[in-house]
TrEMBL record, chain A:
Organism: Sporosarcina globispora (Bacillus globisporus)
Name this polypeptide is given: Nickel import system permease protein NikB
Gene Ontology CC: one annotated term: plasma membrane
Principal location: membrane
Family: Belongs to the binding-protein-dependent transport system permease family. OppBC subfamily.
Cell compartment(s), UniProt: Cell membrane
Subunit structure, interactors included: The complex is composed of two ATP-binding proteins (NikD and NikE), two transmembrane proteins (NikB and NikC) and a solute-binding protein (NikA).
TrEMBL record, chain B:
Native source species: Sporosarcina globispora
Keyword Cell membrane carried by entry: yes
Stated name of the protein: Peptide ABC transporter ATP-binding protein
UniProt keyword Cytoplasm, yes or no: no
Gene Ontology cellular-component terms listed: plasma membrane
Protein keywords: ATP-binding, Cell membrane, Membrane, Nucleotide-binding, Transport
TrEMBL record, chain C:
Record PANTHER family: TRANSPORT ATP-BINDING PROTEIN
Domain ABC transporter residue range list: 22-261
Superkingdom of this protein's organism: Bacteria
Protein name (database record): Peptide ABC transporter ATP-binding protein
Family affiliation: Belongs to the ABC transporter superfamily.
Transmembrane stretches, start-end: none
Residues in the signal sequence: none
GO-annotated molecular function: ATP binding; ATP hydrolysis activity
Keywords associated with the record: ATP-binding, Nucleotide-binding, Transport
Source species of the chain: Sporosarcina globispora
InterPro entries the record matches: AAA+_ATPase, ABC_transp_ATP-bind, ABC_transporter-like_ATP-bd, ABC_transporter-like_CS, Oligopep_ABC_C, P-loop_NTPase
Amino acid sequence: MLMFILRRILQTIPVIIGVTFVVFFIMQLVPGDPAVLLAGEGASKETIEAIREQLGLNQPLYIQYFEYLTNVFKGDLGVSLKNSQPVLNEILVRLPITIELAFFSIIITIVLGMAAGIISAVKPYSLTDVSVMLVALLGISLPSFWFGLMLMYFFSVKLQILPVAGWDSLLHVILPAITLGAGGAAIVARMTRSSMLEVIRQDYIRTARAKGLRERIIIYKHALRNALIPVITVVGLQFGALLGGTVLVESIFAINGLGRMIVDAIRMRDLPMVQGGVLFASLIFVVVNLFVDVFYRFFNKRIELN
Amino acid sequence: MKERNKPILEVKGLKTLFTTKRGVSKAVDGIDFTLHKGETLGIVGESGCGKSMTSLSILRLIPSPPGKIAGGSVYFKGKDLVTMSEDEMRKIRGNEISMIFQEPMTSLNPVIPVGEQIAEALRLHQKMGKKAAWDKSVEMLKLVGIPSPEKRAKQEPFQLSGGMRQRVMIAMALACTPEILIADEPTTALDVTIQAQILELIKDLQTKIGMGVIMITHDLGVVAETCDKVAVMYAGNIVEHASTEQIFADPKHPYTQGLLNSLPKIHEDQDELITIDGSVPSPYNMPAGCRFASRCPYAEDICATHQPDLISHSEDVKVRCWKYTDKWTGKRDKEGVV
Amino acid sequence: MDTTAEKNIILQVDRLKQYFPVKKDSIFKPKAYVKAVDDISFELFEGETLSIVGESGCGKSTTGRAILRLDEPTDGKVLYMGKDILTLNKKDMRKLRGDLQVIFQDPFASLNPRQTVKQILNEAMAIQNVVEKSKRKERMLELLGYVGLPPEALERYPHEFSGGQRQRIGIARALAVNPKLIICDEAVSALDVSIQAQILNLLKKLQKQFKLTFLFISHDLSVVRHISDRVMVMYLGKVVEIAEKKEMFDSPLHPYTKALLSSIPVPDPTLKRDRVILKGDVPSPIDPPGGCRFHTRCPFAAEKCKQEEPPLRELVNNHFVSCHLAETLPV
């Protein structure tokens, strides 16, 4: 197991380098010369050339990339073109907010999703099952910008029990986290249900019944652990979708997180900021995937053998 | 000696139906048998004859829906399992009546250590503490011949071979010293040298514990080597019931005869095997008469129209066939058709 | 049975090896292989049935697949009528597949569920181009007749048939191309005994009718006893014994064969036998025991058995065994 975790961590290194590579070269494809942009309208050819020299933009691309890479590993992500502050500082301020949002959203995805899935699977095709799955279908179908606005309208404007926007207290987390987590919860619910129904048909569940165990123990001890194996993978994938969703949700609820930062930076053509933001978002994704893999392995030791 | 005691299990007119889109299938259609302490009953038949459904019906483990016990009773120590509450039934499963299944590969929970899978039955039924139950499960693993049981108990099923998994299943089934063990094709998925080990083990433990065994199998060799008496099933019915010696020496029902004839013999050479022509009728559309009539070399008019009862032919033999009644004319025999 | 000397060899397997690489769990460990078939040689005579028996993992099915090049063997030769099959190019191999046919255990899995029996048979004939288009229908009806299926079967799909009937379709498809050698890989193992008897009778009848050679792979010794002329026993990728059927069943020489034969449950309650029950499980083929591979479970194993691999040698006329102690063991 330890060997596996170690190997899995080593495997992320080429992935991270690959990410920097993609991030760097995509930025090269963006039209417009940063030196021209930086020099401002009507700058002389010499000034532009000087800026280019200063930023190393006249070097061959691979040298530029190499420099960028060494800087990244040194923790230097460049300075914002907008306010000349180091990009890293800005990210470190924004990142915890997004992580907090993502954390509560994924909790909602997991808890709500699995609970709904189990409730459905215990009595398949019953009224409860059908209603839960109908709600889940709605959850998948509703676009989050609309769903978020509806929540905001109902709970903040009409009932006035939750704050409209911003990021000050735990109360502020509730609506954005529900908006962000709902779609995932619906997918996890459907996955949990079908996985549970599959597992309940297995021979070892019959063995557990033949042992005289109570239905509750059969469901929670014998069935759930096996049913969760495919669900974990889905949760991992949902986390990726969730990161993408922060961009929207942070904009709707006016939260100063990483997603909104990237959107603003794109609007301002602040390339180093976009680069840094995307790099960090990718890093989070890689780390989460690492956890999912280790978790998966823990739950399903059989794959060690195959 | 067997007749003197009261049986520990008495199945009377047990009926199990399956309702699907294609109609109602009579998987088990009114069967009767008894089992005594220390005795081994074989239930033998080909796929789809209802032998596995019979065993699952006894413990009320048939998947429902679509399955349902539609009638009859199963008396265990005087109480009817069919009408018992689910709570009472649970106290019997795995405690007084245990079951082992055909597929040792899939019958154990893949993510729970095998020792825990045995121990949970002990904690449940014997009200043992955690430590005591674990120690007892290690002891059970040792009893069924698993080397280094302390280490194995902590392992998960995928770390064990097929033969060892079936030993674990047996250890689990016998942990609470049941009075009846139902073994549903316990060796079918195993290699022949491992099969020999497992059959030997079951026999051995049976004498130690003194339990009754119901051996469900399609293999007449297994029946001959392990059973005291045999019920032959065909299309949801018992067609013949007799002692093992009797059934192999002098099978009465034409189906039993056909089954024995179609076996390739290990100790003699034959040019051609004797076969049973045709195939089993669909469970959704059973004929009105004897279910074997369309394949039977002796069939007469009455066989096609009226189903025979399971009648006592002699003291030890019951057979479901018109041939052994006074309704039988013996026309085809005389005409030399057979 | 004639003495083997007069018979033509149709297939000769020479030092066949089939190793499958195992996924490594550490980059520091050397590459491991499952030695599924490890250096075996035998020959098959025209018109006979040679059975390969053994327990799961002994390499019997792998041998069949290697001969057909369904998996490319690691090493060795497979001479069919003197020509090495393993060196043939794709085109020549395809031509040869008309001569070599196979019948699998699960007829349902090996028949295309979307094709009618007619399409299945037609396709087999078209690939080998054995029958003119105009005569194919006639030939199909003839084939159905051989395997005991009614002419109406042509227009039906595999799922409309029972297990035994599907196996008959599989046999008809194999026969469609006029094969000389048919490999039956557990061909009757999935069938109920009464149906199994029908298929065994059919195979025997067809063998006589078309002078077929069978390589019959099975784990069921009673079936093998019924159908074979000669029997070959395998254990952990090695041949442990080859003999004529009667010889093998009446006087087996290898301790493994003896244990195997005595393990079969016999449908005769009056027969009380001295049973040899082997201890333990078959070792892993990834790292098989050195010396004789059976020594870990052999009740007679001596020091020599742990050190030296026994060669396959002819002990009695046409009776080969690979055991150091074969002469000295109790009968």
